[in-house]
UniProtKB/TrEMBL annotation:
Matches recorded under SMART domains: PKS_ER
Domain Enoyl reductase (ER): 10-320
Highest rank taxon of the organism: Bacteria
UniProt protein name: NAD(P)-dependent alcohol dehydrogenase
One Pfam entry name: ADH_N
Gene3D superfamilies: Medium-chain alcohol dehydrogenases, catalytic domain (3.90.180.10), NAD(P)-binding Rossmann-like Domain (3.40.50.720)
Species the sequence originates in: Planomicrobium okeanokoites
Coiled coil residues, start to end: none
Amino acid sequence: MRAMVCTRYGPPEVLELQELDKPVPKTGEILIKVHASTVTAGDCEMRSFKFPVLLWIPLRLYLGVRKPRMKVLGQEFAGEVESAGSEQTLFVEGDRVFGSTELKLGAYADYLCLPADYALTRMADGVSFEEAAAIPTGGMNALFFLRKARIRAGQKVLIIGAGGSIGTLAVQLARNSGAEVTAVDSGEKLDMLLTIGADKVIDYRKEDFTVTGETYDVIFDVAGKSPFSKTVNAIKPKGVYLMGNPNISQMFRRLIHTKKGSRKIIAGAASYNAEDLRYLDGLLADGKIRPVIDRIFPLEELSDAHRYVESGVKKGNVIISNQ
């Protein structure tokens, strides 16, 4: 089978197209013919090994000290079940499925083996492989954080870094809850954000939301780049600050009690599961959410796709097609 192999840590050029043996499902696993996957910021971080200092040692030990232990990257996918190992009753041959590989990785290949009880589920009729592949990472992370905020109709929600895979789905999920959504990102993404439901948009290069005097019930910082103190001051008393990708300084500062009301400051990591994927699949099938797809690259052009994602200009998702 074809696979894009990460030969060493480094720039996009370390990704090479190679022929590997087709995997064979073990007990409790299914063999999936991959039709689509994605390139996320996390994929680029694993390829280049650019992580915060506190994560460097544990991730180096897990991912590989001198070179990647899991040579085929890729965290989310959509495809068809081709065969199954013994003692597996959740899926049958021909099922159209999508999900997350979690830290097993391996989606940048023609075939992938995963335990059947991983975060994967069947796709609804009418959903394309490209659409489904764009849902797991962005959707489950957006769900995890927005559920923590318990958003109610009429609340004001600000989403920082709204133009990426997590942010575009967070905008739609917040609007589905009846919130008034303000989306913050670069100017070239603002029209797209309005088309998916944002009520207001802010170009962070031209306007600082922390000095407008506007306050919000919920602020979700997807990228973890907003100034901590100023952001907290833009939250209403008893409001919620969701820290999607906090840096070390923010993690320490969130432990400091704020003197202005009882604001909640929440950080954490999403737990990936099939139940959440089924929920998101239902929303997708009903037209209540739709993934934003910027570009589609063939598998053999994965290096170009990684380079494009690292440029910071992508809107929503970048898809890798095995068709």
